[in-house]
Every structure is written in structure tokens, then in C-alpha cells.
Amino acid sequence: MADPLLSTLCSVCNAAEPKYTCPRCQRRSCSVECVKNHKARSSCSGKRDETAYVPVSELRTVKGINHDYNFLQKLGLSMERAERLLIEDRGLISRQELRPETIQVITWKKGRDGRSYKVLREKPAAMPAKQTRSESLLHNKLKQLGIEVVRAPKEMTRRKENKTIVSRRSGVICWQVEWLTVWDEGERGAGMAKRVLSKVTENMDLGQAYRLASLQNGLGGGKEGVEVREEEPLADWWLGGGINSSTMLMMQEPSTGRWIDIKEDGDDEEKTTTTTTTTAFHFFLGPPLTGSAAMTQVTAVDPGDTLRDVLPGTKVAEFPTIYVLRRGQKFPPWLELKPRDEAAKRQTKRKAVGGGGGGDERRAKRVTFEQSFDDDGCDGMEEDVVEEEAGEGQIEDGEMEDEEMEEAAQHPSIILDSERHAPRRAIMDDGPVPKLSDLLRHPEDLDKIPALKLEFSRKKGAVDSQLRTGLREQLDTTQAGMTGLGDGQKTVQLIKDEMINIDRLCSESQTMIRDFASINLVSQAHRNFGAVEAMRRDLESFSDRLLVVEDMLRQDDDDKENMPNLLPCHYELTQLRNMRDDATEQVQRLGEEADPGLATTLDDYFGRLDETIDWFDEHVGILAMNLISLVVNENNGLVVRFAVVMDAEERSDRRVLALQEALRDHQDMAARFRGITDGPKKVRGYKQKFIEAIRIGAEQQLEQARDEFLDDASRLDKAMKWYYNDLNAVKMGMTPLVPRRWNVTKTYVDVYHGLMHDFLVGMMDDGETSSAHTLEIASFPEKYYKKMAKLGFRPEDLTPHVIDNREAELVDGFRKLIVKFLDEWIDRILAQEKRDLAERGTAEGSNLDQDEYGYFRTKNLVALWRMLREQVDAAANSERADVVEGVVDAMFLRLRGRQQAWQRMLEDEATAACEAAAAAAAATPGARDAVVDGFQALQDWLVATANDQIACVDDNEDEGRLGYLSSFRQKVESSVTAGYLERADDEVASLRDGYLDLSTWCINRFAQLIFAVDFKSVMSDFFTPRWYSSATMKQISATFDEYVSDYRQVLHHSLVDIFVEILADELLVRYLSCVRNKGAKFRRSDPFRDKIFADVATAFDFFASLPNPDVGHSIKQTWRVTEPFLRLLDADRDSLPDAFADFKAAYWDLNVAWVEAVLRSRDDFDRAMLNAVLARAAQIDLVRGPETIMGRVK
């Protein structure tokens, strides 16, 4: 076989037959690798050149038409994408701004020859966006002043910073001003400008405005060469609180609180506080700074000028920019000074009318109040109050010359001279109402009551006027609406009368024509003959036409991806349907006169048509079910043909419904106009079938998503990915291919959203779902609405709510489920612990555990904390902080309850053990041994419980091991919010304190049990005659040593020293309390001093033998209380009050009742001794301090 020519091989490798053609340069290649090499070698982009020349012959081909169509479609999509990016995604501009200002329309114009010609003329494309009332007022005001404001795009920073507003009441513009203070050489940031924004009214001096901006923002304060001086210490801005400045008699200076007289009654001279800024600054008006290297041109303005003086005739970029230089500062090289524009000068010469007759020059010291603005405009803004210097032509408060009134009526924007220079009341109608308690603080403020009464009366009148105006507008609007309704009813009645006249004329015309009945009969016969002839031809061709349709449907079955015969089939079937409907209608008109077999014959004749229609409907259904797939695969032609079919059927259905309604409402006229009923006679409902197909297709996909979701609760988002893809394909690809009135995207969204709602609600109520599924559904709406917003649908457009706003219910149910498991676990553990505690004496061996250190521990503590951590993990799997926080709150509550339950349980057992020990004291030895064994087990449980509490809070930093509570807090930290964590730390600290308190309580109860059982019989011998001959203290010390030795290995090491200290304190308290023993008496002849010394020495010997010398030393210091106790016993009568006073000074909580018992135990006691002590106690100034050991001795 001959070798192929190179021209027939791949143009890159010249080795294989080509498969691909480059859309740009038409080079052919064989593989992807060759395509890449071609692009790299030839620097070819591989994209079709839309501007390349195409011969006319190729334009008329299918390829050329597709080329143009795809090009136009690409342009349209690009424009839509750019428009959506600018308007919806970023919000930079509004849709109104994208529309052209003018459009060209075709109109007819009559020429000189009398004929009409088509001409193009321009007209506004659309009405401009409607301005708000405030914007319109500001626009008109600026137009009157000759100020041109250049607006930036809506999302630009300078546009956002523009807070310029105008007062609706006074018409004063409050400008947003940009102050650029230029740094001098040698300063930080030399050559740069510090930028500050402030609000300035148009009639405020620039020097005064800059001074206020400096004070508020810290500009220039404390810098060398800057002088800002106040002539009076009274702060100007204190007046901005809404008080009428013209009627105030006194004001309070904020710095000292001193009240200052402002105006005396009957005194024409006003005492107004003014501020003066020395001429320390130069001001220049110019454009805002840019990043350009070009010079910035500025114009010098006088510090005494106002914005109303300098801005007319100028162009402002959003708001004015004023450059500030200190006097003597070198002019920056990047600024260029230019002269004032002549047009601006002429605008500046326009002054307020009514100034001082005779050409007098007036100077005003303006005192500007602090301005407070709300969000809507100048509401609450205090106007300028001006003090007029004495001179000719001075206008009194409330007076105005006639010329001013006339000029003000003609030019509402001009501020009258009497308004600019006469003292006026501050406008505070829109501001907050001051409290009378703030206005009348001192007795001298009562003089203000008449002025305040007038002020509030004025305000009430203004409010009443506004209410009357609003009510009048509402009444006018209502009246206009009622008038419009009346006019509409009249118009409807006129139309009805005209129609009746037309019908009457038609009826009368029949009687006016001779032989009308005959003519009408002949005409009807002619029409009937024509109809019968047409029906005959249709019936004869019916079978052949039906065969053609079936053949086309068969071809479409073979090519279901394109269905080229969809439109022809639809057209032919429509004609055949109409033919059948007309024939059936003719038979129905005959009524009883018709042959009974005629209807059956027609049904048999047209029977094949129903089968063919079902065949066609099957094709349409397939297309409707797979319409999105066709769009995704760019089979746009088939989508368009399908849309044509649906649109034709929809129009047909609307026509049939209209005719049916008309015939139903006008039965008497139906016989006259039978011709209008030609065509389809029944509603076919293809549009409803199309929507039902959308529903069925979505339901099938939701069923698949349901199975996937049930298998894995975390895959709900992935299972619903098709949902958003379908809607996006409809919006981006299908919308341009179907009629706009369909609003096909909204149709799909309504169907899909309703199915999504039913699916999620059904899953929530389905018994197969678990808590994980429920929680995933609860978190789904937020993501759902966010994605739908990207598609252009707001949450309020999607009704009903996707899960009926049941997120809180689902989350709360999941949280309650975890808490329920938590309660069941804790109740089960507590019940087991109660059984173990109750069976402590009867169980074989000990029912306690020992940890790796040999410490006694209960069996369920580890299981409890493990269960808590598992429940936290379960809550954290929800990925919702509120669920975790609710569960952790419940855990904190249960842990506190568990502490209280343990304390009550051990207290009950200890009380029962003490009662059993008291009852067994007189019982048999066997019974006493059983009680001792149960008592020993209870002591072990107290030790184990104390160890458990320490294990909860013991953070072993040396071994890097945290206690249960700290580990739990660390577990929770990553799953909750920072705000909740602060509150959780407080709960953890409270639990930590509770664990320590419960541990200390267990040791205390242990010590009390020792004294109640082991030492109860010997403690009654102290300070009685038997005490002198016994060695009770030595026996107690030996018993203490045994207890400490026995429990040192099983008690937590941090509790051993506490255990010893508690035993020593308990022994001391009970020892001192033994002065109340029956028979306790200290006789001067008995060696009670030596015996007390011997007891204390015995105790000290035991304390000194302790392993921790610090503990022994601390206990000895506590036992030093026996020294003042001994002084109370052996002091003589005269020194006894001093001994008591010293005792009370050292131990402020010394109980006087115990002192009385000590005194009564002396053999020389008498009432005078006690009275002397009580008298001395009354003279002592008690200074409370920390609790001492004597506070426990009663």
C-alpha cells in the first residue's frame, strides 16, 4: 500500500491521521499531546477568531448560522455575567445605571409632499431613579447656590464617607468636610497630610470649624506654633443638649460645675460665651489627594469665610477638601496656588438680604453649638447662634424687615440676615426631649419655668401643625382614590351601554333589510356546504396524514437525542385533533336527530389518532424529564423546539378557556358567532404536564438522595449537589431559550423548593432517621438559603420555609436527647454507689478500689468522667456550638447536684453510724464489734470520697497529667464560642471549689466520727476529779498516731496534713469545751495548772513527731490558745477583766458564753466576777478579722 501524503497526516508529528482541527488556525492534529505542542510552537490560543472573514457562501450554511448564533449567545452570556457581577454580587452600581440614557425609536413624520416617512429620533430610555425627599432637597439647594457636586460610584469609599445633609426646617446644609493638615519639615510624616473628616454647617467660619475638628480629633493640640485660646472657660458644645439658648438664664460650666449667668431680665446686653481662633492657620480649598504625581492646585480662602462663601461656582468631589497650613510654614512643593475663579467670585458676592441699611459693615462672633445628627438627616441639628455686636441697624429678636420677608419668599434657600445675626432659639423639635430633672436641678432654676413653658408650647404647636398637615395629605389621598374608583365605575358602565347599543343596532338591522331571513338562510347553507366539503377532504386524507406522522415519530424514536420531527409531528397532530373535534361537535349539534351509530363510527375511525397522540406525548414527556440534561449538553435546538410546542399548547389552552367562559356567560349570542369557535375544543394541559414532569424528575433524584443520606448522615450536602446544579443550568442555559413570560427559573425553583420542603420535613418525621440525621437537617437551611441567594432568590421568595422554621426544635430535641442519656447514666451510677455504700459492712472484702498510688477510690468515678467526655464528643459532632453549650450547661448542673447528693448521702450514713454506736455502747460485745466494723467501712468511704474530689481537681504538672475537671474543660474548649468559654470558666472554678469543700468536709466528718465513737467515753473525764489521776491525753495521742499511720498510705498525700490539722483542731475545740462537763471544777488547791501543762506537753510531743515539721509548728501555734485560757482560770479578781481583754484582743470571736462557763468552773466564782468581765466586754471596740479557733468553741 502506498504511503499517505503528508497533507493527509497530522500537521505536528506527521505520523498519524488527524482527528482534531484547531478552531483558530485550522491546523489538524492527531492527539492531545500534538494539540499542546501546536499551541506552544505556534503561540496559538486555540480559540476561534470571531472577527475572521467568512465568505458569504459559508454564511448561508448550517455551520455559518451556528457560528453566528454561538457568537451572539456568548456575547449575551458575557453581558449577563458582567451585569450580575456588578449589580448582584458586588453591588457597585444599580440596574438603572446600566441602561442607556437615550434610545433611538422609529417615528412617522409627514413630509412636504404630504406622505409620511420613517425617521429615527432619540428619547430618554427610562425615567431616572426617584430621589428621596432629602436628596431632592439637597440637590435643589446646591443648584440654587451654583455648587456642582461630582458623585462617585455607590460603593466607592469617598461616596460612603459623604455624610452631607440638609436641614428640612432651616434649609442649612451640613457639609462633610475633609481637613488635610500638612506636616511641616522636621515633623513626623513631613510632606504628608493628616486626614480628618468632620461635619460643618455652611454658615460656620472655617477657622472655628477647624478648631472644633482639632478638639474632637486631636489635631494640632500641643504642637509648637499652634495657639488655640478660649476667651471664656464655658464649653460651647454644652449648649447642644436641646435647651433653648435664647431663654436660658444660667448655664453650668462642665469643668468646675460653677453656674454662670447668661442673660439678665430687662438687660439688653447679652453675655454670650465666644471662642476665638487666632490667625495661626492658612486654609486652601482644593481637590482630594490622589496617587498621581501631578501638582494639586488649591485656592486660598480666608479663615473668616464660610462654606457658603467659598463653594458657590466651584466643583466638589462628593464633599469639600480643605488643606491646612500653619502660619509661617513653607508651602509644600506638591501644592500649586491658583487664583480664585472669576465665576466663583461673582457667586460669592451674593449676600443674604436685609443686612444693615446704609452700607454698615457688621461683624459677628459666631458661637457654634455641638451638632448631633441622626441617621436620616439633619434631625436634631442645632442651628448657629450668633451674637450681634452693638451698632446701627441691629434687629431685635423675633423682628424682620419687610424687604427680608419678600426676598425670603422669593428665595427660600437664602438665610435672612435676621436669622444669621439675631439670637435664635435652637431647633430641638426633632431631638430628644430633656428631662425636667436635668433642667431644674437647683432652686434658682425655678426662674426658668416661664421660658421652658413657652418653649414646650412652641414645640407642641409645631407637632400639632405637622399632624394636621399629615392628616390633610392622607385625606386628600383617600379622596383622590375614591374619585378614581368612581370614575372607573362610570367608565365600565359606559362601555356596557355601548355594547348594548351595538347589539340593539345589529338586531334592528335584520328587520331593516327585506328578505333578510332568506338571505341569512342561503348564507348559512353556503357556509355549511363549504364546511362539509372541507370535512370530506380532511376525512379522506386522514389516514395518509396519520401514517406520515407515525413515520416521523418512528424516526424520532431512532434519534431521541435530536428528535428532528418534533415540530412537524406537533403541527400535523394539532390539525388532526382539530379535525376530530370538529366532526364530533357536528354530531353533538344534531342531538337526538343524529344516527345512534354515527358517534361509534367516528370513534372507530379516529381510534388510531389517540394511540399516535399518546406516542407523541411520550416523546414530549421524555424531553420534559431530560430538559436540563439537554441544556447541559448544549442541545439548544431541541430545547427551543420543545419550548415552541409548549408555548403553542399554552396559547391554545388559554384560547379554549376564554371561549368556554364567553360561551358560558353569553349563551344567547353563541348561535350567532359559531365561527369563532373553530379550532381546539378541549384543554390539553401540556404546560401542566410539563410541570408535573419536572416534579417527577426531581422526586426520582430526591429518592436517590434519601437513600444516600440514610446511609451517611454527613453526606446531605453532597447528595443535594444536583439540586443547585439543575437550578443553575435552568437560570444560565434554559432561560434564554424559552419565552420570557414563562419565568422558567421561578417555575423550577417553586417546584424544587416545594419538593425540598416535603423531603426534609418527611425525613424529620421519619422513624428511620437518627439524631445525626436530625441534626444535619437542622444545620441545612442556613447553607441552603445561602446557595439559593447566589442563584438570585432571597429567603422571603422561597415559601414555605424549607423546614418550617423548626431548626430550634430540632437542635433542642438533639440536646435533650443527649441530656436524657446523661441523666440516665448519672442516675444509674448514683444508684450503684448508694448500694455499694449501704453494703459496705456486709460485702466480702472492700467494695472500694485503689488507684496506682494505693489511694482509696470509689469504683464509678472513672466511668462517670469517661461518659461525660463521650457525650461532649456526641454534641461536638453536630458542629453546632449552641448544642455543645447546652449539653455542657446540663453537665455542670448535674455535677453540682452530684456533689450535694454525695454530701447528703454520707451525712445520713454518718448520723446513722453515730446513733448505732450510741446504742451499742450498752449492748453485748458481739454487737459492739459489728458496729465497729461498719464504722471502719464508713471511714474508708469517707477517705475514698475525699480522694475522688482531689482527683477531679489535681493537676499534676510534673507528670503532665491534668485532673478530670481540667481535662474536661480542655475537651470543651474547642467546641464552644469564646463568649461561652468565659462563663464556663466561672462554672469550672465553682465546681473546683465545690470539690475541695466536699473533700475537706469528708475529713472533718471523719474526725467527728472518731470523737463520737472512740473518745466519747473519755472526753467527759476532762477537768473532773478523775482527770487528775488519768492519762486521757496520752491515750488520745496514741489513737491519733494509729489513725494517721493506718490512713497515710490510702489517703491522698495532699490530704494527710489536712487530716492531722483537722484532728488537732477538733481535739483542741473539744478540750476547751470540756469546761462544761458535769463535775468540772478548778479548785485553787488542786494542781490543775500542772495537769493542763502536762496535757499540752503530751499533745506537743505528738505534733513534734509528725513527718512535716511545718504542720507541727502550725498546730502548736494554734494550741497556744491554752495560755490565755489558763490565765482566765488562775487570774485574781482584779486582773481578771484585763486577762479577758487580752484574750478578746487576740481572738476577736471569743464566745462570752464560754468565758462565763470557764468562770463558773472556778471554785472562787461569784456574780461580781462575771459582771466585771461583761462590763469590760462592753468597752472593747471589736475589730473583726479572720476566723480563729475560738470561734468554734461554744
Kindly describe this structure:
- This is Box C/D snoRNA protein 1.
- Required for box C/D snoRNAs accumulation involved in snoRNA processing, snoRNA transport to the nucleolus and ribosome biogenesis.
- One of its GO terms (cellular component) is exocyst.
- Belongs to the BCD1 family.
- With 1194 residues, the chain is α+β, with helices and mostly antiparallel strands.
- Among the domains are: 147-218 and 277-337, Phosphatidylinositol 3-kinase Catalytic Subunit, Chain A, domain 1 (Ubiquitin-like (UB roll)); 458-511; 536-680; 687-804; 823-1017, Tetracycline Repressor, domain 2 (Orthogonal Bundle).
- The strands form 7 sheets. Strands 6, 7, 8, 11, 12, 14 and 15 form a 7-stranded mixed sheet that branches.
- Residues 1-6, 219-278, 349-431 and 670-676 have low confidence and may be disordered.
Features:
1194 residues; alpha+beta; Ubiquitin-like (UB roll); two-stranded antiparallel ribbon; 19 strands; 56% helix; elongated; disordered N terminus; EXOC3/Sec6; ribosome biogenesis; metal-binding; Box C/D snoRNA protein 1
Please report which band the strand proportion falls in: under 5%, 5-15%, 15-25%, 25-35%, 35-45% or over 45%. 5-15%
Q: How many β-strand runs?
A: 19
How large, in whole angstroms, is the Cα Rg? 51 Å
CATH topology of the domain at 823-1017: Tetracycline Repressor, domain 2
> In terms of structural class, how would the helical and strand content be classed?
alpha+beta
Please tell me the CATH architecture of the domain at 823-1017 by its name: Orthogonal Bundle
Which residues form runs of ≥5 with pLDDT under 50? 1-6, 219-278, 349-431, 670-676
CATH class of the domain at 823-1017, named: Mainly Alpha
